[in-house]
Amino acid sequence: MSLVNQLIAATLAVMLGLAGGTIYIVSDSSKRMLTNQLESHALDTATHLGLYLAPYIASRDAATVETTVNAIFDSGFYQRINVVTADGSMLFSKTTPPVIGNTVPQWFVDLVELTPPAMTREVTYNWTKSGSIFVQGHPGYAYLAYWRVAQETLIWFLFLALISTLAISLILRIILRPLKGVEDQAIALTHKQYIEQPRIPKTRELRRVVEAMNQMVRQVHQMFEEQSQNIEELRRQAYRDDLTGLPNPRATRAQLGERLDYRQDFGPCALLYVHIDNLQALNQALGAEKTDNFIRLLASQLGETGATAGDHIIGRLGGADFALLLKLPPPDQLQRDVNGLLTRIDQDYQQLRQSETQTQAPVRIGIALGTDQTGAAQLQSNAHLGVEKAQQDDKRTHQFRAAGDPQPTDESWHEHVSAAIAQQQIFLQAQPVIATDERPLHQEVFARILNQDNNPCSAGDFISVVRELGLMIDMDRAVVNHALEYLQQGPATAALAINLSNESATDASFCQWLLERLTTLNQRSRLCIELNESSVLNNLTGIGNLRAALRTLGCSFGVDNFGVHPSGFGYLYKLQPDYIKIDGSLLHDIDSDAQDQFFVSSLVSVAHSLDIAAYAERVERPSQLTQLLRLKIDATQGFLHGTPGALE
After folding, report:
1. The dihedral formed by the CA atoms of 213, 219, 220 and 222, expressed in degrees to the nearest 10
2. Which residues constitute the domain of residue 315?
3. Residue 97: CA count within 13 A, CB half-sphere
4. Domain GGDEF, which positions (predicted)?
5. What does the pLDDT look like over 496-519, one tens digit per residue?
6. Where would I find the beta strands (DSSP E) of 70-213?
7. Given its phi and psi angles, is residue 29 left (phi above 0), alpha (psi -120 to 50 degrees) or beta?
8. How many domains does the chain have?
9. For residues 559 and 584, what is the distance between their CA atoms, to the nearest angstrom?
10. 261 and 233 in one domain?
11. Residue 405 lies inside a defined structural domain of this protein
12. DSSP tag of 261
C-alpha cells in the first residue's frame, strides 16, 4: 500500500474512532433523554388519572375506572396501568405485551436495551387516601424515536465521512505529490534515465527529499558522462590519429581486415593509397604548422570523397600515407574521382604556399581494385605498389593491375539479382552467439542467393548490386519473412537475430510493416532485431521509436559493430538496447594488446552499468575467448564457434 493510502487509511481509522465515540455519546444522551421523557409522561399520566378517578376509586366504581383507563391505554403509549384501592386490592389492571412492531428492526431492539420507567401516584379523596395508580410507559415510542435518531446520525456520518475522505485524499495527494515524483525518479534511474523535478515543494521535509534526489540524479548523470568522456578519450588516443582525427594505422588495418577478410560484405572495391612525397622536405619548405595544416586538409578532402561515394573506410597508414576504400565505381568515374581529389588537394596546397605560381601538391595516389576474396593485406600491398610505380614513372597516379581484379558487372548479373530479390529466392545462413556458460543465445542470420551457376555466393557479391538497384528494403522484407517462417515452423527453442540495413531502418513504411508482421509471431522474445551503430546514430530519434515499439512487442534489440563510430556512445542511455556487439576490429589483438584490453573492458563496463549485455564478434582463437571472459563479456560470436551454415 502506498504512503498516501496508508495516511488516508490511518486518518479514516481515527475519524471512525472519533465518530464511534461521538455516536455512542449522542446515543447514550438520547437514551437518557428518552427515559426521562417516558418517566415524566408516566408521572403526568398517573397524576391526571388520580385526580380524575379519585372519587371513583373511593367508591370502588370499577366500570368507570375501566372505561377511563381503556380510553387512555388505547393511545399506545403505555405498557401497564394498575389501579389499586387503599387497602391494596386491585381495582383494575390493564397490560399489553412490550411488542415493538415492524417499524424498528429486531436486531436493533436486541442490541439496545430500553426499560421504560414505572411511576406510582397516590390518590386522595376528601383528604383521605383512597388508593394508588401505577403507570408504566410502553417502550415502542422510545425505540422508534431512538431508531430514527440512530438512522439520521448514521446517514449524516457516512455522508460527512465520504466527503471528508475525498477531501483528505485530495489534500494528501497534493501535499505528497513530490514523493510520487521521487518514486518516478528512482524508477527512471534504474532504467538509466536522468529526470529532475523542476518544482520544489514548500514543505521543509519534502523539499529536502526532492533536492537530495535531484542532486543524486545530477551526480549519477555526471558520473556516466565523465565515464563516457574518459573512454572516448581513451579510444581517441588508442585508435585515432591526433593530427587528422582519422583512424590511426592500427585501427585502419583492423577495419579493412574486418570488412574484407572477416565479414566479406564490401563487394568489389577500389583502394586509394595516398602518399605525400618527401614529407620531411615539405616540412622544411612550409614549416611545421603549415605542413600539419596541409595534412589536415588532405584528410578532410579524403573524407569528403568517401562520404560522397557512400560506404567507405578511411584512415591514416603512416606519417605520409593514407588509405581510402571505396565501392568500385565505373572505370571512368573512378579516374574522374581521383583527378577531382587531386585538383582539390592542389588548391589547398596553393593557398598554403601563398604563391602565384601554380604548383602541384607532392601527392601520389596508388589505386588497387579488389573483391572480398582479395584480402585486406593483398589489396594494401597492390595499392602501395601502385604508388611506387607512379614514383618511378614520375606520375601522380597509377592503377595496379592484377589477375584477380574485378571485372565490370554485366547486365545479366543485375537482372539475376533483381529477379532473386523480387521473387524472394534467398536462403539464410546462421552463426550462433554463445553465452559464457556455453549456452546458445540466438543465431545471427545472413542472407544469401545462388549465382547463375546455382552456387551460393557471399554477400559481397550481390549486396552492392542490391543497393545499386534500390532493393535493400525488398531484400530485408524477404529475410524477415524467411526468418519468421523458420521460427513458426522450426524448433520451439530457436532464436534468431536479423540485422536490418540502414535503408530499411530509416523507411517508415518498412518499420510499420515490420511491426505489423511481428504481431503474427508467437513468442516474439525469440526474435532479435540488430542495427549497425552507424544506422542508429544517423537516425537516433526514429530508431528510438522503433526500439520502443519492439520492446512493447517483446522483441530484443541490439546494436551491431559497436565502438568504432567517431560520435561515441552517449546515445546508449537514451536508446537502452538489450545488447551491444563490440566490433570485431577492436578484438583482433585482444589477447595480446593491453590497450585493446583496457578499451574493451571499458566498453563492457559502460554497457553493464546501463544493464545492457555486451557481446563480442569475430572471435577466432581460444586465447581471445579466454581474455574476453576475463573482461566479463556476456557472449561471443565468431569462427571459434563455427562458420555460418545453412539455417535448417
Report:
1. 140
2. 251-400
3. 3
4. 267-403
5. 999 998 889 989 999 999 999 998
6. 78-85, 90-95, 118-125, 128-137
7. alpha
8. 4
9. 13
10. no
11. no
12. I
